Amino acid sequence: MTSQNPVFIPGPTNIPEVLRKAVDMPTIDHRSPVFGKILHPALDGVKQVLKTTQGQVFVFPSTGTGGWETAITNTLSPGDKVLATRNGMFSHRWIDMCQRHGLDVQVVDQEWGEGVPADRLEEILTADKAHEIKVVLATHNETATGVRSDIAAVRRALDNAGHPALLFVDGVSSIACYDFRMDDWGVDIAVTGSQKGFMLPPGLAILGFSPKAMAAVETAGLPRTFFDIRDQARGYAANGYPYTPPVGLLNGLNVACQMLLDEGLENVFARHHRIAEGVRRAVAAWGMQLCAKRPDLYSDSVSAIRVPEGFDANTIVSHALNAYGVAFGTGLGDVAGKVFRIGHLGSLTDVMALSGIATAEMVMADLGLPVTLGSGVAAAQDHYRRSATAMQKAA
Amino acid sequence: MTSQNPVFIPGPTNIPEVLRKAVDMPTIDHRSPVFGKILHPALDGVKQVLKTTQGQVFVFPSTGTGGWETAITNTLSPGDKVLATRNGMFSHRWIDMCQRHGLDVQVVDQEWGEGVPADRLEEILTADKAHEIKVVLATHNETATGVRSDIAAVRRALDNAGHPALLFVDGVSSIACYDFRMDDWGVDIAVTGSQKGFMLPPGLAILGFSPKAMAAVETAGLPRTFFDIRDQARGYAANGYPYTPPVGLLNGLNVACQMLLDEGLENVFARHHRIAEGVRRAVAAWGMQLCAKRPDLYSDSVSAIRVPEGFDANTIVSHALNAYGVAFGTGLGDVAGKVFRIGHLGSLTDVMALSGIATAEMVMADLGLPVTLGSGVAAAQDHYRRSATAMQKAA
Amino acid sequence: MTSQNPVFIPGPTNIPEVLRKAVDMPTIDHRSPVFGKILHPALDGVKQVLKTTQGQVFVFPSTGTGGWETAITNTLSPGDKVLATRNGMFSHRWIDMCQRHGLDVQVVDQEWGEGVPADRLEEILTADKAHEIKVVLATHNETATGVRSDIAAVRRALDNAGHPALLFVDGVSSIACYDFRMDDWGVDIAVTGSQKGFMLPPGLAILGFSPKAMAAVETAGLPRTFFDIRDQARGYAANGYPYTPPVGLLNGLNVACQMLLDEGLENVFARHHRIAEGVRRAVAAWGMQLCAKRPDLYSDSVSAIRVPEGFDANTIVSHALNAYGVAFGTGLGDVAGKVFRIGHLGSLTDVMALSGIATAEMVMADLGLPVTLGSGVAAAQDHYRRSATAMQKAA
Amino acid sequence: MTSQNPVFIPGPTNIPEVLRKAVDMPTIDHRSPVFGKILHPALDGVKQVLKTTQGQVFVFPSTGTGGWETAITNTLSPGDKVLATRNGMFSHRWIDMCQRHGLDVQVVDQEWGEGVPADRLEEILTADKAHEIKVVLATHNETATGVRSDIAAVRRALDNAGHPALLFVDGVSSIACYDFRMDDWGVDIAVTGSQKGFMLPPGLAILGFSPKAMAAVETAGLPRTFFDIRDQARGYAANGYPYTPPVGLLNGLNVACQMLLDEGLENVFARHHRIAEGVRRAVAAWGMQLCAKRPDLYSDSVSAIRVPEGFDANTIVSHALNAYGVAFGTGLGDVAGKVFRIGHLGSLTDVMALSGIATAEMVMADLGLPVTLGSGVAAAQDHYRRSATAMQKAA
């Protein structure tokens, strides 16, 4: 039923054997002390992955989308003003959610392929003398376009503007993949999920709240119960949970954090960068362009690759699945049909990446694109070879 | 880390081997056609389990609590009037959620151990000439007290009153355990989860919406995005999902429905009744009383057992865990310390039930309660023996 | 397909979750260094379980029967004389194997239910002035009759007779269940399997060879290749194996040994004794007799229970399976139809044992035997209660 | 602990998810009727895979080596004459086993890389007027050299010589990989294991016996008990087994046969040929030679690749493991250090094969061999692309 090839979608990612087994648990009594011994190490592990010592972590049986909703409903009231950049499908969706919850979103539209424009945000924030903007939303990694934005720059924009707005960051496809620093960057809410850098099945929304975000909870007027972090906090304090917890996924999260921390976060990031760079060199060898406009925007989680004008990128994805049993990502929204995506996050080796690159070459050749078989593979091999020793030491 | 004894909590239940394996899936591309082949049979299976042909089924990566929120946020607006009975912790929590969402809840308080008072509801509905009450909430199985309420009677109350209110039923711990008839009883929204009668790990909120409930969605003013069934409906229509779906749990749900339907729902119900009746006979043999006031209120999912005045029921639960590695349920809310609960729902055999009964006897004897060792076991054995043959044919 | 009730056969035993997962491994390269890191800890662990520092351990992809064959073919030559006691089906089978391999077996027949008669062996060995007897075979735990023999006494018989024969012990259903002391008792070859005290699936023959047994290998004339321990020894020395090794089971063996040693062997034995004693008290409460003749012969691994004259014990086993989905053991050979067996070895809790006892009571009542429901359960409960605290500390 | 890259050793092979789960079973009572429902379909499935209607199948908890021993000990007596070809490590080992069991082996030595010389065998058989040769041994696929021999030609040699010797074939790494016809080719004993074409973990020796081989069992004088097929046959007839059966692996074998037969054996063979041909084209693109001397000898299970004179092939295998976490096979015996092997049997896709080819290229480049990165990949891609459609229909 399921192919044994690795998947190259930008999440959910390939699940390591040890995490498969950690999640697959028999039923335990979640009101017994055993539960606390799973929950608290998982929460502590996430804190370390988020690089926060001051933040509090909350984990919901939900998804990244639920994480977005948790962020806004716990801190905002109807009519509150939010400043957000739209530069891809996922930043769009968070904006849409805000609007559906009655928030007043000031949208900064960027061409898809661009990042969050910190300078433009600074202008807007500076102009907002009345501090009506309560929150700035930023998508760290736009999964739809393979664009990494500079969150430290967004923080500087806020600071330069002397603006007290909260900074909420969607790190769904960046956290545990490349560098994320909740405390250093003054992130007030970080949102992620289980199925990307944590290499688990989907099913968890994972959030970090800064003390400032926690303070905002008391005055937030948007209704919420399932996503109310106060109920979670009360539960955790009693080694419990406000409703039936997803014990297996929490156990998996605990083990995933251990794996990441044992490897070392910087090594995890270096590993992602190395794999991603191989993919990018393959793309260059094919004579193709990334959707991301400039190297400083290139994502180490996913590459969105532009196809020639007039060619339907979706055919690459469907043919790869039908002919070779390999899953790539389609383009979404504004770039639908214009890009296909290779996910290279989570539990992926250079060897697996090469099989994805080789498959993409066969697919493009099958579909008449002028790609030389083996060309991208060779470029990636060259990169992986030269960088192998260092990686090996890290492994 | 985890005991190999069965659990006797009223959910999550013991997970059958085949469902463990169905849930434990490698990552697939949820945007590929494979996903639809998991999703749609699962949705169809749930429809059959709910006994609805007209309803639509929605499944969220969430819990029963998220299911409650889905029900109210998709159909109601702030200030809308809701009529609800409070007769235990779970009906209380749904009411609390409504209030936190700004609804105006008219609460009918019942002694814990009583069911939903259909006659009283009929009076109230009849008196509501202006039809201000938009929804009647009813908890089919109060997990906290082991009380089964008569949903058909609630429907008759609505009909007798000629009242157009919607009927929302919490069937979290009844559906797939004992008879539930969404269409026959005119249930507008049925709410359940994965971790009870469906015998899966927690992580899914499962809902059925009647056409009348679907119609109410269009005018509902409460904000929701994650729980918006319109996004779900659009996703399903395209063999997709509005965000990352919990594929393993959906696959498990599909297989669970097949198991239930292959066994035959009436056989599933008879099996639950048989196991439950054995537990009840044990309780009677111990000279103890159920929290449920009358036999027609006895739940086939869980029995809450009253302990003698002055005795702390929680010690039974903690001692069972510490001394014998067996999990029972504690009393919650008004009956905290006054009852302990034996869950007998989901994948449980007579043989397993006997081990739970035997453990309860040891525990109570250890704690000085006047229980004769073997007495409850003998009563249950007698029942299981006499009813074994019929069950065996059904198995 | 498979019942979720525990099994009560005298092996294979119930497999703990952690061992299920340890065995279920993806393929590794067994010629890589990873293999040695699985193999050697497993071998070392077995040595500790056998309580030997001088012996060498060998593990074959086979069963206990293959272990018997390994013992005789590596040490004996056609026509060699062997002294063996036959007191049950498994001692019988080892004798039969010797005869099929051309050995000259002097059989001491004992009534089934009796143990190995050390005094009689001493007489025979003393009379064997020419030391023609090369090996004494002894079955530590006769699985067919639930009889434990005194291996220390057999050693004393050899010593008293001043006889140099090797002592080979079938510890298949005793090792890792109750006390076994390879070095102290001067056992020259100990034979066991994976599926009893080690709680793993079947598939491994596990042997300890004393230095004296190792010396005998050089002169043994029976042909063997698959079971040749010299090939194994050469393989181990190179972190390898003479043919494709059963990596998953070896990994499981490693983890199983860790579990046993972490619990503490004496605690493991005490746990088995406690569970077994509960079963025996139940049998006494039923007014029935064990096949084992005297308390000093009672096995802590399995109880064979005599049924009344004229009653077919096999009907108990078949009815238990058909009506309640519970597996007990039938009688074998001379005691076929006369006994049924309750296995209580490996990963079994008091709670699980009570469910087996309760089932046996229902079955016997169903079949018209004069057993009072709950009587055996109560006797076992009483024992388990009184012994619970000490066990709890050990757990 | 274990890499998530596929393995490219010539067995054990990558285990499909569904077979992992089929093997990983809770304990069942192997004396219950459930066992027969696993055993007999597995035996029937193997018969179909062997393409025999007249043969009987036996399955032992052992390995291919145990299968060899089963073949000879059940049919031969000490001093019996056996004719065998030695053209690699595995044919050598079977010969060695015969000698250790006291058989008189006439060895036809072939250069490693050559196949079984049917013409030379015919000469010897024709010369054996007294019919002293009881058995001809032939290794269908020499795993050490990647050589496929022509078993039909060996049968013709026997027939042309009018010789009644039995024909025993080692099909360990051919059966379920490429065409094997037990009945058509007059194979008297076929030997294989679980861990190659059947895609299971190691642990089973699998044999087919022709009626003529069955007849030989009655007069065979070599001692055997564990491997005695008469005990197996008696067990099977009673839905049982002569000792504790490896139930999980048997269940896996049943499911594996279903998978193979559902795919269609000819499709399985075509799939292996396609994957293998891609590897061979890569080897040619590298300018390297196979160990197998001629195309008609090329194995579809494994390719042994000659390295340049003076280069140590083992460094390729160790570097691949250390630097990239990929397992290839080393050279064994006469070709140790001269070849490395790429296993391409069992559950392997074109995409996985490409990752192995790409890895080999990186490794060889790292070690200074004059291999152009991407060259072998491109050659294989070209082949896989052109053959994809047909395969896709078969999948």
How would you sum up this structure, described in words?
Four copies of one chain form a homotetramer. The first copy, chain A, has 395 residues and is α/β, with parallel strands linked by helices. The first copy, chain A, folds into two domains: 17-262, Aspartate Aminotransferase, domain 2 (3-Layer(aba) Sandwich), CATH 3.40.640; 265-394, Aspartate Aminotransferase, domain 1, CATH 3.90.1150.10. Chain A has 13 helices and 13 strands. The longest helix of chain A has 21 residues, at 265-285. Chain A starts with 16 loop residues before the first helix and ends with a helix. At the A-B interface, α3, α4, α9 and β12 of A face α3, α4, α9 and β12 of B.
Overall 3D form of chain A: globular
CATH architecture verdict of the largest domain in chain A: 3-Layer(aba) Sandwich
Measured distance between first and last alpha carbons of chain A: 32 Å
Task: Give the largest interface pair and sizes.
Answer: A-B, 62 and 62 residues
Counted by DSSP, the helix tally of chain A is 13
Strand content of chain A: 5-15%
Which class best fits the helix and strand makeup of chain A? alpha/beta
Total strand count of chain A, please? 13
Q: List the quaternary state of the chains.
A: homotetramer
Provide the CATH topology of the largest domain in chain A.
Aspartate Aminotransferase, domain 2
The CATH C-level class name of the largest domain in chain A: Alpha Beta
Largest sheet properties of chain A? 7 strands, mixed
Average pLDDT of chain A = 96
Strand order of the largest sheet of chain A: 1-9-8-7-4-2-3
The CATH superfamily title of the largest domain in chain A: Type I PLP-dependent aspartate aminotransferase-like (Major domain)
